[in-house]
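Q: My labmate handed me this sequence with no annotations at all. I'd like to see what the chain might look like in three dimensions before we decide whether it's worth expressing. Could you predict it?
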Amino acid sequence: MKTTAAARTALRDAVRALRGDLGAGGRHPLPPMRGPRWLRRLPHAVVMWLAIVLAVGHGDQLVTSYSMATPNGVPLAIALGGAIVLAMFRPVPAWWLSMAVAALGAEFGRTYQFGSDGPWPWPFTGILAHALVLFLLTLRVRARVAVEALVLSVLLGLAAEMLSGDHPHVSSVVLSGVVFAVAVVLGSALRGMREARGRLVEQEVLTAEERTRRTVLEERTRIARELHDVVAHHMSVISIQAQVAPHLVEDPPDELRENLAGIRQNALDALTELRRVLGVLRSENPEAAEPAPHAPLPTLARLDTLVENARAAGLTVRCVTAGDVLPLTPGVELSAYRIVQEALSNAIRHAPGTAVRIELAHTAPGLRVRVTNTAPLRSAPPSPGAGHGLLGMRERAAMLGGELAAGPAPGGGYEVTALLPTDSLPTEQQT
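A: Here is what I predict for the chain of 431 residues:
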């Protein structure tokens, strides 16, 4: 009794699962091909053409070869073609329609004398049409649903064969089962390839985002290493001034001496912590460390050397300064120098032989750096770089609370413009 109850439960669960899989008629449109627009709907056009050909062939086979009455054969042929077309949008209902056409065709066929060479219950055109419907179904549904549809299709042929009686015919159950299985296997393989390609594209997108994120972090680390010397210089000056200040006043009070000593001690402690931070930054990314870590950081005073190097590389460079030249903070000078350096490097790599104009405008808001180059005279060779120079320039401008814009210039060239404020901090750092 327990075995019978368990079998009934298993059967009931199987029927419920089958009803859930093949009872849903959700919309699953056939996706277009990748490539040019005129080629994207090629699969749909091919399916439409096959639907017409198979519908005409099926009707001719039923009426002419099997002597089926026209009122019975023609509607079945039209319904079969409609099932193929419907399979492009709603594959599950299309499969049910194809099954109904096959069942009605087998039932009508039993009332006619097909002869000894007539395949039954699946005519040749019916096998091809139903295999196409199964193929389109397998492309859009889970593998379990496709296998269930395959099994029910084979069972339909077996049931019709068992009910054929003495009707003379050539059984097409084995042939139809093989063709249906091939259609399902091929559809499953193509679906697996499409899903694998989709996962690969997603992984490539994630990899590109991770590479960009890592590049930004590396650039920020490099900027932090460079700014360390700037901050350390100011802290050293504070320490020295705090040490010298008591000697500049005759009989300074004890409170002043204590405050100045505290300032000097805090400056020395800050220098110690800065050295530790710099050590951590260099140890985390030793390959990106500067070749000469103790060399002085570049400023705009060394811009002439940078221009001469660019000219030696084949560029025609002109440097223009506008406005009243005002003293700039070391951070602004360093960022301006690096932005010009990266813009010239990009021009050398991507626009060899062009004319480059460097403009440094000292304005009230800050220093405006503008680097433009004309259209390249010849195609540039492939560059092995990572292509993230613009990220570094934007990070340097954002660090100072400035802005940077880069893009094609009128006439086919390229332009990089940065505004570096001299008296403000980034918004997130303001208090």
